[in-house]
Amino acid sequence: MDAPERRALTVSELNARIHELLEASFSELWVEGEISNCRPYPSGHTYLSLKDEKSQVRAVLFKGAAARVRFRFQDGLKVLVRARATTYEPRGELQLVISAAEPLEKGALQLALEQLKARLAAEGLLDESRKRPLPEFPRRIGVVTSGAGAAVRDILHVLERRWPGLEIRVWPVRVQGEGAAEEIAAAVRAFGALAPDTDVLLVGRGGGSIEDLWAFNEEPVARALAESPIPTISCVGHETDWTIADLVADVRAPTPSAAAELAVPEKGAVQARVAELSAAMSADLRALIETLGRRLSYAARHPLLQDPRRLWEQRAQRVDELSARLPAALRGALERLELRLRVSAGRLDAISPLKVLGRGYAIATLRGRVLTKAAQARNGDILNVRLAEGELECEVVK
């Protein structure tokens, strides 16, 4: 009996059959595990492993599915994923293709919020030092919000009441739902590019659930606010609502109406203050003029101004007096100098060598050198002897 013919599979055929079997058997399943070896790629895909205490399996989150996952995958995060089991045929490796994910320890939105806040804080975008002051008297106000919501009506009403005639520029956007964050970010950037003369930019919406407000917790909005060349006010929700936009904007307002009040002063109050200052300035000016007038009147009554000759009469008299005293002062000075000279001459004469010679002393010199000892001269030396009157030449005889 002939042996049955053996049919060998190629590696590619084997991998293809396993791939088809897994795709048919595990079209969707839920897997719980801890993320490790997480590697996001520039393409938007993220490759990772899911592991427990004993095993691990490779997995991939493709870009399309990643857009529906609120938080970012990172090593050590425990997650529950919805996936299909398949293989990567070129290597015959088992892998999970993830379509949805939930964090096991925190809610997805809360985790996403914490992750984004940590990233922005690390870049310094939440620092108070980078926040800019609002202009005191803006002329042009920009508003980024829904064109049909109550928020825009509240903002317009408050702005028009506080400063009638203000130029208001509204850029309507979606404020919730898919693509809302991108619209808000684009509007903020458009104001900076197309209307850079806008003085203040209000960005926000009315209150709602965390899901309703979520567009203002997304990274595109946060970065657009941080990069805006126009000072920004974030006004999202009610007083107790806080979003990432509130942390990044230059100023946070608890409501859209409060943002409008922060943006512009009340015109009537400003006008009243200007009138008050104007009246005070007028009163101060009148008081100053009155003071100067009194000083001028006093000066006009002063004797010197009534008869200006008095200014030089006494000075002329003083000049004459000093001129008369000058010759006597000079004579006294000369006499004092002569006395000093006589005293000095007497002192010099008293110590003069000639005075000593007059008392019978003589000075003997040898070749111009004064002798003080007999031993300084030798037999036959010719000495010059200076007397009080005249000189002698003497030969030394020893």
The H-level CATH homologous superfamily of the largest domain, spelled out, is Succinyl-CoA synthetase domains
Cα-atom Rg, whole angstroms? 54 Å
Mean pLDDT: 88
Number of domains: 4
Order of helices and strands: HEEEHEEHEHEHEHEHEHHHHHEEEE
Q: What is the topology, as strand order, of the major beta sheet? A: 1-2-3-5-4
Termini separation: 172 Å
| Contiguous runs where pLDDT drops below 50 for at least 5 residues | none
Q: Structural class of the helices, strands and pairings?
A: alpha/beta
Amount of helix: 40-55%
Give the gist of this structure.
This protein is of the alpha/beta class and 398 residues long. It has 4 domains: 11-105, OB fold (Dihydrolipoamide Acetyltransferase, E2P) (Beta Barrel); 138-265, Succinyl-CoA synthetase domains (Rossmann fold); 284-327; 356-395, no CATH class. It has helices at 11-25, 63-66, 108-122, 150-162, 180-194, 219-227, 244-248, 256-263, 267-300, 303-306, 310-350, 353-357, and strands at 29-40, 46-51, 56-61, 78-88, 93-103, 140-145, 167-172, 200-205, 232-236, 251-252, 363-366, 369-370, 382-386, 391-395.
